[in-house]
Amino acid sequence: MDKLANQLRRDAGRIDARVSDELDRRIAASLQGVTPLEDSTVAAAPRRTALFWWASSLTGIAAAAAAILLINPSRPELPATPGPAAIVAVVPDIDWNSETAVFTAPLQQELDALQSDIRKAEAQVKADIGL
Amino acid sequence: MKTESQLIEAAQAGSPAAFADLVRRYRDGLLRFLLTRCASYADAEDALQDTLINAYRYIRSYDPRWRFSTWLYRIAIRNAANGRGQELAAVHDLRDEESDPLLQCIAESETENLWVSARRVLNDEVFTAMWLRYAEDMSVNDISAALERSTSWTKVNLMRGRRALDAELNGTYNESEAYG
Asked: What ipTM is given for this predicted complex?
């Protein structure tokens, strides 16, 4: 045992403090008015029965349903957006076996009209300049 | 004569008399400890009373893996820190030799009581660790439990406390040859 430890022990013993009879009586009287509390560690984790879990699940579902009902009516009307099924309905059925000409004919007609206009314009220019 | 564990069981069953018997051997030590933390003797007595009442109130949560004294000191430390301790901390610097309860309980001698020096140079937590180690002979594990600190923290701070106290004493007491 080193000197410092010895001196600390000795000096702690030199602190002269004792519980007086009056304090003893006071403490005893105070204790009479106190009841020990239940162990909080036991009270904090009671056994849960299956009924408890069912009841808590149903309560949770009911609360979620109530929240949905309360929140939805207060929302502004949103424009209807088509779901995936509606989009499929909008797109026309395409007969991939039909002839290509069915799709290219309008374009061909437009091309022919433009070429005819060019020819007419060339003839008009030649006439104007006397060729 | 009942053993400590029998007294604990009786106290847990709701017997204040058994609890009073149980704490009888620890009361003087607790009072000495509280004197180092309080501004007056009356405050230390009140703090002791509060500590014992709280201990009895929560006696059913006492874990027998701990030493009973460790559990009691833990309550006393919390009590001092949460309640009167904060209020008293404010007057800590104002107390003088006449009103200091610790000085009142120390017989006049040629050398200063080391615990007075310790209180001057150590912070509250390190002082408490030193007190529990050297005045109450607690193990490092018990001190860690009482202070709610790791054992590493306790070991390091006990060492730091000793060094600080050594340095203080070497400066103060070299001439008196108290420590050679």
From this structure: 0.79
